[in-house]
Amino acid sequence: MSSSVLQVQQVSFRYGGKEIFRDLSLAIQEREFVSIVGPSGSGKTTLFRLLLGLEKPETGGLFLGEKQVIGAGGGIAYVPQKDLLIPWRSILDNVILPLEISGLTKREAYANARPHFASFGLAGTESAYPHMLSGGMKQRVSFLRAYLTGSDVLLLDEPFSALDAISRVEMQDWLLEQWVSLKKTIILITHDLDEALLLSDRILVTSSPPMKQLAEIPVPLSRPRTMDMKLDDKSLLSLKSELLQKFRHEGAKCDAEET
Ligand SMILES: Nc1ncnc2c1ncn2[C@@H]1O[C@H](COP(=O)(O)OP(=O)(O)OP(=O)(O)O)[C@@H](O)[C@H]1O
């Protein structure tokens, strides 16, 4: 067998009468960076909810290593679109939440969290409150909180979509660096095709429900990657046009379903 860290095996799922997945299978390799792109309403967030154990498949199974994914919080961490920081807790108190929940005392949790502030670009923000930070910084806090769960797999649900264009590019660069240094497996939902191309080893394209498989586009760019590549590389431009075509095609099918 390969070194899949995450496996979705023949999963079927529906919300009431709406069938979302039918016998869907996919595998994510250890330390892979995979982006999921696809039209609105195609089931991207639902896939995350299943991976987090927040929804139960009708049939099939989801596995983290050998272990079946059951219930929330089992080795998979989630960074949502909105940072969901608690406004009345300091940044340090926000990031230690998962450590407190796992049973550490506040003192232990602080000792655990503090050394990571610098590498997450958050030095000096420990006693600040969320409203004092920029959008990009708040997302880094959210990312640090997810990292401190100790999970090997991070699910990022459009984490940069609310940021302005410049902060977004800065955060994409930052995430590239973090992915290299933290050695985690990352799955990113994004609507930004440039972001998907720049960051990923593979891009999975969702289609209109019920989804039986995800189209897969490998990104054959060497690493380390830079922003210049994004602008210059000819193969990147042709990949982008391939992605756009798939995206539009599936989007049209989704729109037709909704009407
Ligand atoms: N709790 C729910 N109950 C019933 N239907 C739901 C529920 N959550 C999502 N759906 C439906 O399931 C389908 C897939 O939703 P999902 O949020 O997974 O799509 P998505 O691809 O993440 O969309 P977006 O890109 O807009 O976030 C949609 O048709 C949505 O309306």
UniProtKB/TrEMBL annotation:
Stored InterPro entries: AAA+_ATPase, ABC_transporter-like_ATP-bd, ABC_transporter-like_CS, ABC_transporter_ATP-bind, P-loop_NTPase
Source taxonomy: Bacteria, Bacillati, Bacillota, Bacilli, Bacillales
GO MF annotation list: ATP binding; ATP hydrolysis activity
Keywords, alphabetical: ATP-binding, Nucleotide-binding, Transport
Name the record gives this protein: ABC transporter ATP-binding protein
Superkingdom of the organism of origin: Bacteria
A Pfam entry, by short name: ABC_tran
Domain ABC transporter span(s) in chain numbering: 6-233
